[in-house]
Amino acid sequence: MIPVSVLTGFLGSGKTTLLARLMRDPAMGKTAVIVNEFGAIGLDHDLIETSEESFVQLSNGCLCCNVRSDLTLTLADLAARRAQGTVPPFERVVIETSGLADPAPILHALMTERDLAGFYTLDGVITTVDALLGITTLEQHEESRRQVAVADRIVITKTDVAGADVDALRQWLAHLNPGAMASAGVQGAIAPSVLFDCGSYDANSKHPDVGAWLARTSHSYQGHQGNHGHTHSDDYSSISLLREAPLRAVTLPLLLSALAENFGADLLRVKGIVHVLESPERPAVIHGVQHVYHAPVWLPRWPSADRRTRMVLIGRNLRESWVRKLIDMLDAEVADETARHT
Q1: Is 147 within the bounds of a domain?
Q2: Cβ atoms of 173 and 184 closer than 8 Å
Q3: d(Cα 87, Cα 114) in Å, to the nearest integer?
Q4: What is the CATH number of the domain that holds 277?
Q5: Which residue, 122, 198, 274, 320, is the most exposed by fewest CB within 10 angstroms?
Q6: How much is the pTM?
Q7: What is the pLDDT of residues 213-228, one digit of tens each?
Q8: DSSP 8-state symbol, 64
Q9: Cα-only R_g, the chain
Q10: List of E strands, the chain
Q11: pLDDT tens digits, residue range 78-137?
Protein backbone atom coordinates (compact mmCIF):
# COMPACT_ATOMS: atom_id res chain seq x y z
CA MET A 1 0.00 0.00 0.00
CA ILE A 2 1.31 3.44 -0.97
CA PRO A 3 1.02 5.95 1.91
CA VAL A 4 -0.63 9.26 1.01
CA SER A 5 0.02 12.37 3.10
CA VAL A 6 -2.10 15.50 2.81
CA LEU A 7 -0.24 18.81 3.25
CA THR A 8 -2.67 21.60 4.03
CA GLY A 9 -2.72 25.04 5.65
CA PHE A 10 -4.23 28.44 4.97
CA LEU A 11 -3.08 30.87 2.27
CA GLY A 12 0.53 31.92 2.74
CA SER A 13 1.20 29.66 5.70
CA GLY A 14 4.28 28.10 4.11
CA LYS A 15 3.09 24.87 2.47
CA THR A 16 5.07 25.28 -0.73
CA THR A 17 8.23 26.37 1.11
CA LEU A 18 7.96 23.30 3.34
CA LEU A 19 7.31 20.94 0.44
CA ALA A 20 10.14 22.40 -1.65
CA ARG A 21 12.58 21.88 1.24
CA LEU A 22 11.32 18.35 1.89
CA MET A 23 11.68 17.34 -1.74
CA ARG A 24 15.38 18.19 -1.63
CA ASP A 25 15.88 15.58 1.11
CA PRO A 26 17.18 12.21 -0.21
CA ALA A 27 14.59 10.44 1.95
CA MET A 28 11.87 11.90 -0.29
CA GLY A 29 13.42 10.64 -3.52
CA LYS A 30 10.58 8.25 -4.41
CA THR A 31 7.69 10.62 -3.79
CA ALA A 32 4.94 11.64 -6.21
CA VAL A 33 3.59 15.14 -5.66
CA ILE A 34 0.09 16.42 -6.42
CA VAL A 35 -0.34 20.18 -6.08
CA ASN A 36 -3.67 22.03 -6.16
CA GLU A 37 -3.51 25.77 -6.79
CA PHE A 38 -6.43 28.18 -6.49
CA GLY A 39 -6.05 30.04 -9.77
CA ALA A 40 -5.61 29.51 -13.47
CA ILE A 41 -1.82 29.93 -13.40
CA GLY A 42 0.36 27.32 -11.74
CA LEU A 43 3.45 28.61 -9.92
CA ASP A 44 4.39 25.88 -7.49
CA HIS A 45 5.90 23.58 -10.13
CA ASP A 46 8.68 26.13 -10.63
CA LEU A 47 9.28 26.36 -6.88
CA ILE A 48 9.37 22.63 -6.05
CA GLU A 49 12.24 20.51 -7.36
CA THR A 50 10.77 17.19 -8.42
CA SER A 51 10.68 15.09 -11.56
CA GLU A 52 8.24 15.99 -14.34
CA GLU A 53 6.92 12.44 -14.36
CA SER A 54 5.93 12.40 -10.68
CA PHE A 55 4.47 15.89 -10.42
CA VAL A 56 0.78 16.56 -11.08
CA GLN A 57 -0.69 20.04 -11.00
CA LEU A 58 -4.42 20.57 -10.44
CA SER A 59 -5.46 24.15 -11.18
CA ASN A 60 -9.22 23.76 -11.50
CA GLY A 61 -10.00 25.84 -8.45
CA CYS A 62 -10.44 24.34 -4.99
CA LEU A 63 -9.63 20.63 -4.89
CA CYS A 64 -12.16 19.96 -2.15
CA CYS A 65 -14.92 21.07 -4.52
CA ASN A 66 -13.81 18.68 -7.30
CA VAL A 67 -12.48 15.80 -5.25
CA ARG A 68 -14.01 12.94 -7.25
CA SER A 69 -13.48 14.41 -10.70
CA ASP A 70 -9.90 15.51 -10.01
CA LEU A 71 -8.18 13.83 -7.09
CA THR A 72 -9.66 10.33 -7.40
CA LEU A 73 -9.02 10.13 -11.14
CA THR A 74 -5.52 11.56 -10.75
CA LEU A 75 -4.52 9.03 -8.10
CA ALA A 76 -6.02 6.16 -10.08
CA ASP A 77 -4.12 7.32 -13.18
CA LEU A 78 -0.85 7.57 -11.23
CA ALA A 79 -1.33 4.01 -9.96
CA ALA A 80 -1.97 2.73 -13.48
CA ARG A 81 1.06 4.54 -14.88
CA ARG A 82 3.23 3.19 -12.07
CA ALA A 83 2.10 -0.35 -12.91
CA GLN A 84 2.88 0.28 -16.59
CA GLY A 85 6.31 1.67 -15.77
CA THR A 86 5.65 5.05 -17.40
CA VAL A 87 6.35 6.94 -14.15
CA PRO A 88 9.07 6.21 -11.58
CA PRO A 89 8.10 3.58 -8.98
CA PHE A 90 7.06 6.08 -6.33
CA GLU A 91 6.65 4.83 -2.77
CA ARG A 92 4.81 7.80 -1.29
CA VAL A 93 2.35 10.49 -2.43
CA VAL A 94 2.11 14.00 -1.01
CA ILE A 95 -0.96 16.09 -1.86
CA GLU A 96 -0.56 19.83 -1.32
CA THR A 97 -4.02 21.39 -1.12
CA SER A 98 -4.87 24.97 -1.94
CA GLY A 99 -4.92 27.33 1.01
CA LEU A 100 -8.70 27.51 0.84
CA ALA A 101 -9.37 23.77 0.94
CA ASP A 102 -11.67 22.12 3.44
CA PRO A 103 -9.71 18.89 4.03
CA ALA A 104 -12.71 16.75 5.00
CA PRO A 105 -13.82 15.78 1.45
CA ILE A 106 -10.22 14.96 0.51
CA LEU A 107 -9.75 12.72 3.54
CA HIS A 108 -13.12 11.04 2.97
CA ALA A 109 -12.19 10.19 -0.61
CA LEU A 110 -8.84 8.74 0.40
CA MET A 111 -10.47 6.58 3.08
CA THR A 112 -13.54 5.36 1.22
CA GLU A 113 -13.11 5.47 -2.59
CA ARG A 114 -13.24 1.93 -3.96
CA ASP A 115 -11.13 2.94 -6.97
CA LEU A 116 -8.24 3.77 -4.61
CA ALA A 117 -8.62 0.92 -2.10
CA GLY A 118 -5.94 -1.73 -2.29
CA PHE A 119 -3.29 0.64 -3.61
CA TYR A 120 -3.29 3.76 -1.39
CA THR A 121 -3.68 4.34 2.32
CA LEU A 122 -4.08 7.68 4.09
CA ASP A 123 -0.94 8.10 6.19
CA GLY A 124 -1.67 11.44 7.81
CA VAL A 125 -2.39 15.15 7.55
CA ILE A 126 0.30 17.82 7.89
CA THR A 127 -0.94 21.37 8.51
CA THR A 128 1.17 24.52 8.33
CA VAL A 129 0.28 27.52 10.51
CA ASP A 130 1.85 30.97 10.22
CA ALA A 131 3.31 32.08 13.58
CA LEU A 132 2.81 35.77 12.77
CA LEU A 133 -0.74 35.69 11.38
CA GLY A 134 -1.96 32.32 12.61
CA ILE A 135 -4.17 33.47 15.48
CA THR A 136 -5.90 36.13 13.37
CA THR A 137 -6.40 33.61 10.58
CA LEU A 138 -7.85 31.01 12.96
CA GLU A 139 -10.24 33.59 14.39
CA GLN A 140 -11.49 34.78 10.99
CA HIS A 141 -11.48 31.74 8.69
CA GLU A 142 -13.27 28.45 9.27
CA GLU A 143 -11.12 26.72 6.64
CA SER A 144 -8.05 27.38 8.78
CA ARG A 145 -9.65 25.93 11.90
CA ARG A 146 -10.67 22.79 10.03
CA GLN A 147 -7.18 22.39 8.58
CA VAL A 148 -5.75 22.42 12.10
CA ALA A 149 -8.44 20.19 13.62
CA VAL A 150 -7.82 17.29 11.20
CA ALA A 151 -4.01 17.37 11.48
CA ASP A 152 -1.70 14.62 12.70
CA ARG A 153 1.31 16.92 12.49
CA ILE A 154 1.35 20.72 12.72
CA VAL A 155 4.28 22.79 11.45
CA ILE A 156 4.47 26.29 12.93
CA THR A 157 6.17 28.44 10.29
CA LYS A 158 7.80 31.89 10.35
CA THR A 159 8.76 31.63 14.00
CA ASP A 160 11.76 33.83 13.20
CA VAL A 161 9.58 36.77 12.09
CA ALA A 162 9.46 39.69 14.51
CA GLY A 163 6.16 39.91 16.36
CA ALA A 164 5.33 36.21 16.19
CA ASP A 165 3.71 35.02 19.44
CA VAL A 166 4.43 31.30 19.27
CA ASP A 167 3.31 30.51 22.82
CA ALA A 168 -0.15 32.03 22.33
CA LEU A 169 -0.49 30.25 18.99
CA ARG A 170 0.42 26.91 20.56
CA GLN A 171 -2.43 27.39 23.05
CA TRP A 172 -4.87 27.93 20.17
CA LEU A 173 -3.58 24.84 18.40
CA ALA A 174 -3.76 22.70 21.54
CA HIS A 175 -7.39 23.74 21.99
CA LEU A 176 -8.31 22.82 18.41
CA ASN A 177 -6.25 19.64 18.21
CA PRO A 178 -4.56 18.50 21.44
CA GLY A 179 -3.45 15.21 19.90
CA ALA A 180 -1.38 16.65 17.03
CA MET A 181 2.37 16.99 17.42
CA ALA A 182 3.38 20.61 16.74
CA SER A 183 6.89 21.42 15.52
CA ALA A 184 8.52 24.70 14.52
CA GLY A 185 10.07 24.99 11.07
CA VAL A 186 12.00 27.98 9.74
CA GLN A 187 12.07 28.16 5.92
CA GLY A 188 10.77 24.59 5.79
CA ALA A 189 13.73 23.14 7.69
CA ILE A 190 12.24 20.04 9.27
CA ALA A 191 13.14 16.37 8.86
CA PRO A 192 10.75 14.14 6.88
CA SER A 193 10.85 11.59 9.71
CA VAL A 194 9.05 14.12 11.93
CA LEU A 195 6.14 14.53 9.52
CA PHE A 196 5.52 11.21 7.81
CA ASP A 197 4.67 7.59 8.70
CA CYS A 198 1.91 8.63 11.08
CA GLY A 199 0.06 5.33 10.72
CA SER A 200 -3.50 4.85 9.50
CA TYR A 201 -5.59 7.99 9.89
CA ASP A 202 -7.80 7.93 12.99
CA ALA A 203 -10.58 10.55 12.93
CA ASN A 204 -11.72 9.47 16.40
CA SER A 205 -8.52 10.81 17.94
CA LYS A 206 -9.15 14.32 16.57
CA HIS A 207 -11.45 17.15 17.57
CA PRO A 208 -15.05 15.87 17.99
CA ASP A 209 -16.19 17.93 15.01
CA VAL A 210 -13.93 16.01 12.59
CA GLY A 211 -16.15 12.92 12.64
CA ALA A 212 -19.20 15.09 11.96
CA TRP A 213 -17.48 16.81 9.02
CA LEU A 214 -16.59 13.45 7.47
CA ALA A 215 -20.13 12.16 8.04
CA ARG A 216 -21.64 15.21 6.31
CA THR A 217 -19.20 14.75 3.46
CA SER A 218 -20.33 11.14 3.04
CA HIS A 219 -23.98 12.22 2.93
CA SER A 220 -23.23 14.97 0.41
CA TYR A 221 -21.39 12.50 -1.82
CA GLN A 222 -24.45 10.29 -1.98
CA GLY A 223 -26.75 13.20 -2.73
CA HIS A 224 -24.65 15.22 -5.16
CA GLN A 225 -23.07 12.55 -7.39
CA GLY A 226 -19.50 13.42 -6.56
CA ASN A 227 -19.85 17.11 -5.70
CA HIS A 228 -19.84 17.18 -1.92
CA GLY A 229 -21.80 20.41 -1.72
CA HIS A 230 -19.14 22.36 0.17
CA THR A 231 -19.26 26.14 -0.04
CA HIS A 232 -16.48 28.35 1.27
CA SER A 233 -17.26 30.62 4.18
CA ASP A 234 -16.12 33.66 2.20
CA ASP A 235 -16.59 34.74 -1.39
CA TYR A 236 -13.01 34.22 -2.56
CA SER A 237 -11.81 34.82 -6.07
CA SER A 238 -8.45 34.81 -7.79
CA ILE A 239 -6.75 36.96 -10.40
CA SER A 240 -4.14 35.31 -12.61
CA LEU A 241 -1.80 37.61 -14.52
CA LEU A 242 0.61 36.80 -17.35
CA ARG A 243 3.00 39.43 -18.67
CA GLU A 244 5.45 39.02 -21.53
CA ALA A 245 7.40 42.24 -20.98
CA PRO A 246 9.78 42.34 -17.98
CA LEU A 247 9.17 44.65 -15.05
CA ARG A 248 11.73 47.01 -13.59
CA ALA A 249 13.10 46.08 -10.18
CA VAL A 250 11.88 49.29 -8.54
CA THR A 251 8.35 48.51 -9.69
CA LEU A 252 8.05 45.47 -7.41
CA PRO A 253 8.04 47.18 -3.97
CA LEU A 254 5.84 49.95 -5.36
CA LEU A 255 3.36 47.38 -6.63
CA LEU A 256 3.18 45.47 -3.34
CA SER A 257 2.72 48.73 -1.42
CA ALA A 258 -0.06 49.89 -3.75
CA LEU A 259 -1.87 46.54 -3.52
CA ALA A 260 -1.74 46.60 0.28
CA GLU A 261 -2.96 50.20 0.41
CA ASN A 262 -5.84 49.79 -2.00
CA PHE A 263 -7.14 46.28 -1.23
CA GLY A 264 -6.31 46.10 2.47
CA ALA A 265 -7.80 43.10 4.27
CA ASP A 266 -9.61 41.96 1.11
CA LEU A 267 -6.32 40.80 -0.41
CA LEU A 268 -5.37 37.55 1.34
CA ARG A 269 -2.52 36.30 -0.87
CA VAL A 270 -0.11 37.52 -3.53
CA LYS A 271 2.33 35.13 -5.14
CA GLY A 272 4.37 35.48 -8.28
CA ILE A 273 7.47 34.79 -10.35
CA VAL A 274 8.64 38.00 -11.99
CA HIS A 275 10.89 38.63 -14.99
CA VAL A 276 12.96 41.63 -13.94
CA LEU A 277 14.49 43.88 -16.61
CA GLU A 278 17.75 44.50 -14.75
CA SER A 279 18.27 40.81 -13.94
CA PRO A 280 16.94 38.77 -16.87
CA GLU A 281 18.63 35.52 -15.82
CA ARG A 282 17.44 35.63 -12.18
CA PRO A 283 13.69 35.85 -11.62
CA ALA A 284 12.24 37.37 -8.46
CA VAL A 285 9.67 35.52 -6.35
CA ILE A 286 7.20 37.80 -4.57
CA HIS A 287 5.02 36.88 -1.59
CA GLY A 288 2.34 38.71 0.33
CA VAL A 289 0.06 37.32 3.04
CA GLN A 290 -2.81 39.52 4.20
CA HIS A 291 -1.14 42.76 5.34
CA VAL A 292 2.42 41.34 5.43
CA TYR A 293 4.50 41.69 2.26
CA HIS A 294 7.96 40.20 2.07
CA ALA A 295 10.97 41.44 0.12
CA PRO A 296 11.43 39.67 -3.22
CA VAL A 297 13.51 36.49 -3.19
CA TRP A 298 15.90 36.12 -6.12
CA LEU A 299 16.22 32.66 -7.64
CA PRO A 300 19.68 31.69 -8.95
CA ARG A 301 18.20 30.85 -12.36
CA TRP A 302 14.91 30.35 -14.18
CA PRO A 303 13.44 26.99 -13.10
CA SER A 304 11.85 26.36 -16.51
CA ALA A 305 11.80 27.64 -20.07
CA ASP A 306 8.83 29.87 -19.29
CA ARG A 307 10.24 33.35 -18.60
CA ARG A 308 6.98 35.25 -18.45
CA THR A 309 5.94 37.09 -15.33
CA ARG A 310 3.19 35.12 -13.57
CA MET A 311 1.23 36.43 -10.60
CA VAL A 312 -1.75 35.14 -8.65
CA LEU A 313 -3.82 37.29 -6.28
CA ILE A 314 -6.46 35.72 -4.02
CA GLY A 315 -9.04 37.57 -1.98
CA ARG A 316 -12.38 39.31 -2.09
CA ASN A 317 -13.63 42.15 -4.31
CA LEU A 318 -10.56 41.98 -6.54
CA ARG A 319 -10.62 43.91 -9.82
CA GLU A 320 -8.41 42.38 -12.48
CA SER A 321 -8.56 45.32 -14.89
CA TRP A 322 -7.50 47.69 -12.10
CA VAL A 323 -4.53 45.51 -11.14
CA ARG A 324 -3.36 45.27 -14.75
CA LYS A 325 -3.58 49.04 -15.18
CA LEU A 326 -1.76 49.56 -11.89
CA ILE A 327 1.18 47.39 -12.99
CA ASP A 328 1.44 49.18 -16.35
CA MET A 329 1.19 52.62 -14.74
CA LEU A 330 3.82 51.95 -12.07
CA ASP A 331 6.29 50.43 -14.53
CA ALA A 332 5.78 53.36 -16.94
CA GLU A 333 6.40 55.87 -14.13
CA VAL A 334 9.58 54.07 -13.10
CA ALA A 335 10.75 54.07 -16.72
CA ASP A 336 10.10 57.81 -17.07
CA GLU A 337 11.89 58.59 -13.80
CA THR A 338 14.89 56.47 -14.89
CA ALA A 339 15.01 58.26 -18.24
CA ARG A 340 15.01 61.69 -16.59
CA HIS A 341 17.98 60.76 -14.43
CA THR A 342 19.99 59.38 -17.32
Answers
A1: yes
A2: no
A3: 23
A4: 3.30.1220.10
A5: 320
A6: 0.74
A7: 555 554 454 444 444 4
A8: G
A9: 20
A10: 2-9, 31-36, 55-58, 92-96, 120-130, 153-157, 181-185, 237-243, 267-276, 279-289, 292-293, 297-298, 309-315
A11: 899 889 988 888 999 999 888 888 888 888 788 888 888 889 988 889 999 999 889 999
